[in-house]
Write a structure and sequence with these properties.
The complex is a heterodimer of chains A (741) and B (64). With 741 residues, chain A is of the alpha/beta class. In chain A, 41% of the residues lie in helices and 13% in strands. In chain A, α1 runs antiparallel to α13, α3 packs antiparallel against α4 (43-54) and α3 (31-39) crosses α10. The two termini of chain A are 45 Å apart. With 64 residues, chain B is α+β, with helices and mostly antiparallel strands. In chain B, 25% of the residues lie in helices and 31% in strands. Chain B is built from 2 helices and 3 strands; from the N terminus they run βββαα. Classes of the chains: A alpha/beta (741), B alpha+beta (64). β16 (694-695) of chain A pairs antiparallel with β1 of chain B.
């Protein structure tokens, strides 16, 4: 993982960007911060903030027509925007009067010439003087102010300007017109700010509007002579002082601070309430109490939508840019890596909710995925988080794999791709769907995994191997269109084997006449899986369910992950439970789902729900355990092998298959919870047949099996051919090797 | 299964004795006293240990 690669993911994040109002401010005032201070009654602090940004706050307060108000998010509610004109005036009036800051830094020797004592020249002169450069201001008139002198409030402006200049030594030469810049050769830099219609010393042609430089060496130009309006001319002062100092120190004008990008997005908080515009009782200006009330109407707009919407990001609330840097530091085998992000990286459902929520479509899931891949490449991934799922992938990809055109054909135009879970969870419905597809579309079958397990584990070699297997089968079947039952398969195949053309099963079925759909509920909500976005799958499901006559409810938030995605369950079981329970409660009505995983997650959480295929092909009525799902898958493969190839499929036999288990409900639940299969238990018992086990006085045995990264323990008793399982548990830690006596 | 059970090594017929055993996970290792057969060295991890302290330490190491 490289810094540039990581930074690119989050560069558009607007979490710390100025609020929309600041985008319109000629001074770039952090209005959110200003109003926060004002709302708390910290008027001196508010004044200082205003003065730092505007240089001459009384001038700014009087001249600024508050373009910020046009971007105020309150307007989106139908409210009056924050009354920034009155607020600014009140801050200057009530919080002003404090002595300007004194900057205790070493005096410089390089002299600075400013030509013109108008707003542009004065602002730049003050900023350079604050950096302790000796500044001389040449003004052809007899006093300062330039174009401000014509303003009716000039007396107020003059007072403010003199007050802000009062702590700095500036050499003003009034009545001194500069006609030849060569006469200023003793000065390290020159700033031409001669005002509108003033002498531009023929420098305008080579003027750089970003850097304020001219074709003449060490000579800057700005303000009215360049057509810059008054407020912008004042606002340029601090930036010019940085550029002039850069010129003095390095001979080049550079290093200007990049202006933060303000957002124009709707940042209105989720539960924003209307609040009435505060009018001053005297009709003139705010009292302190009125100012506080008006400033308190500010929403303090900032974007934390991803943390507000995504349960995972909300569980680890950190600004995305900070998170990206921590992921970078955390994803390699560096001995200094904190590993503080590990749990979070593997807790992500890898659904696109953060992206859909983000106004800039920042994709934190992709970043987590990148980290998973980097960790797997470096061999530092917590293997136990994905062990079970990779074993499932292995099962479906090897023993469970089957690809065939319909009977008597070598190729087909369509092939049903039920995905790795549907065959185990809803075997009869899978077979019924296959039968219909074969009859009406001449569809073959492809029992395989899309590779999601390998992708989510970050195991590149595994997903490439799986993709190659899929590609080969697809070629052999004559490049048919894949009919997908699972939205995740759609997303994964688009990513991993993009040349495969796919069509959602439900879209295809929705186009079929004479296909009755049962009404399993009088009224139900549709829970869309997180991967079904922007394709025909959602529409197809709705079209089918409408035929059933069931009253359908659309959830307020659609396409949120049920909790299954990304295999969060093994990495963060508590968060998985929380998310699954929240999703189950998004409607009081039962759910129609069209993802086998959503179905199981909700049924396990006690939520009444059915898969759409149950409305088409009959209800299943149960959640199969891990081993039963394997048996179901192999049975589906067996039926299809006979139907399509006229031969019998004989599943592999193992020594431990002969073991008959008796498992009570409590132990079964514990096994499912820990993802322990009957096969794990049988292998564990079988491994103890040589006597490698413990025994107690009640005739119970305890045996252990080390399988890949897990260790399984089974307590059992034997009664004839039957083994009763009293307990099964597992752990990830390895032990032994060096036993110290 | 509870901790009080008196497991014996079925192969050696011996009572188990507390033994220091090395545990390894996520590139780290440490020792902890668990029951083991004094003759063949077979180690027993109880359910309480696996689902209690061991699970806690596993989570800590995954977070490190």
């Amino acid at each position: 993982m490289e810094l540039a690669e990581i930074s690119a993911f989050v560069e558009n994040c607007i979490y710390d960007a100025p609020a929309p109002c600041s985008g319109g401010c000629p001074f770039g005032v952090d209005i959110r911060s200003l109003l926060r201070k004002a709302a708390r009654g910290r008027l001196s602090a508010a004044y200082r903030e205003l003065r730092t940004a505007t240089v001459f706050p009384a001038v700014a307060a009087a001249l600024c027509d508050a373009p910020c108000m046009k971007s105020c998010q309150r307007s989106l509610l139908g409210d009056e925007p924050l009354d920034m004109e009155r607020i600014e005036e009140a801050i200057v009036r009530l919080g002003g009067g404090q002595e300007p800051d004194i900057f205790r830094i070493p005096e410089k020797t390089e002299r600075v010439a400013v030509i013109g004592a108008g707003p542009a020249g004065l602002s730049a002169a003050l900023s350079m003087a604050q950096k302790k450069y000796p500044v001389t201001v040449f003004e052809k008139e007899s006093g300062l102010g330039g174009r401000l002198r014509e303003h009716p409030k000039f007396d107020v402006f003059r007072e403010d300007i003199l007050f802000q200049l009062s702590k700095e030594k500036i050499d003003f030469r009034f009545g001194c017109e500069v006609t030849d810049l060569d006469a200023l050769e003793d000065y390290a830099v020159i700033y031409v700010a001669t005002g509108s219609g003033g002498n531009d010393f023929r420098l305008r042609a080579g003027w750089d509007e970003e850097l304020y430089t001219t074709a003449r060496e060490r000579t800057f130009m700005g303000g009215g002579v360049c057509g810059i309006p008054t407020l912008q001319a004042i606002a340029a002062g601090p930036e010019l002082s940085r550029l002039m100092e850069s010129m003095i120190q390095t001979g080049r004008a550079s290093g200007g601070a990049a202006k933060p990008r303000c957002t124009a997005h709707n940042l209105l908080p989720k539960n924003a309430q209307k609040a009435e515009h505060v009018m001053p009782a005297d009709g003139e200006g705010y009292t302190k109490a009125e100012l506080k009330r008006e400033a308190a109407r500010c929403f303090q707009c900032s974007c934390d939508k991803c943390m507000g919407e995504c349960a995972v990001l909300g569980n680890y609330p950190k600004p995305p840019k900070q998170m990206a840097m921590e992921i970078l530091a955390d994803s390699g085998p560096h001995f200094l890596a904190s590993r503080t992000m590990t749990r979070q990286v593997y807790s992500c459902n890898l659904c696109p909710e953060c992206t859909d929520t983000c106004p800039e479509r920042v994709n934190m899931g992709e970043l987590f995925q990148l980290s998973r891949t980097a960790r797997a490449d470096a061999g530092i991934e917590p293997e136990a988080f994905h062990d079970f799922w990779l074993r499932e992938l292995d099962f479906v990809s090897r023993e469970g794999f089957f690809a065939s055109a319909p009977e008597g054909k070598a190729t087909c135009e369509y092939v049903f791709f039920p995905g790795c879970r549907l065959t185990g969870s809803l075997p009869e419905q899978t077979l019924a769907a296959q039968k219909l597809l074969t009859e009406r579309f001449g569809a073959g079958t492809l029992l395989a995994c899309c590779g999601a397990s390998a992708w989510w584990a970050g195991e590149k070699a595994l997903w490439e191997e799986n993709s190659a297997r899929l590609r080969a089968a697809w070629e052999q079947l004559g490049r048919p269109r894949l009919v997908l039952a699972c939205a995740s398969c759609g997303e994964m195949l688009t990513r991993l084997v993009p040349e495969l053309e796919t069509v959602p099963l439900y879209e295809l079925l929705a186009g079929e006449e004479n296909l009755p759909v049962s009404s399993l509920f009088r009224s139900a909500a549709i829970f869309d899986p997180c991967s079904a976005r922007g394709d025909g799958m959602r529409a197809g499901v709705r079209a089918l369910l409408r035929r059933s006559g069931t009253e359908l409810e659309e959830l307020q938030e659609q396409g949120r992950c049920c909790g299954w995605g990304g295999h969060m369950r093994t990495a963060n079981p508590e968060l998985y439970d929380k998310i699954a329970e929240e999703r189950a409660q998004e409607s009081e009505k039962p759910y129609y789902v069209y993802c086998a995983n959503c179905r199981e997650v909700f049924l396990e959480k006690g939520k009444d729900c059915r898969h759409v295929l149950e409305a088409l092909f009959g209800e299943c009525g149960q959640v199969f355990d891990i081993s039963a799902k394997h048996q179901n898958h192999l049975r589906v493969k067996g039926v299809l092998t006979m139907d399509m190839q006229g031969r019998k499929f004989v599943p592999e036999r193992h020594d431990w298959d002969e073991i008959e288990l008796e498992i009570g409900d409590t132990v079964r639940r514990e096994m499912e919870c820990q993802l322990i299969s009957d096969e794990d238990v049988k292998k564990c018992i079988h491994a103890s047949f040589g006597g490698e086990r413990f025994a107690d006085l009640q005739g119970h045995f305890l045996s252990c099996l080390h399988e890949r990264v897990m260790s399984y323990w089974v307590e059992y008793s034997q009664d004839g051919e039957t083994y009763t399982v009293h307990s099964a548990y597992c752990h990830r830690m390895k032990f032994g090797g060096e036993v110290e006596r | 299964m509870n901790e009080e059970k008196s497991w014996r090594c079925a192969k050696c017929g011996t009572e188990l004795v507390p033994t220091n055993v090395i545990f390894r996970y996520m590139g780290r290792s440490f020792s902890h006293e668990v029951p083991a057969c004094p003759d063949c060295g077979r180690v027993l991890i109880t359910k309480e240990l696996a689902q209690g302290k061991m699970a806690e330490v596993e989570a800590l190491m995954e977070d490190k």
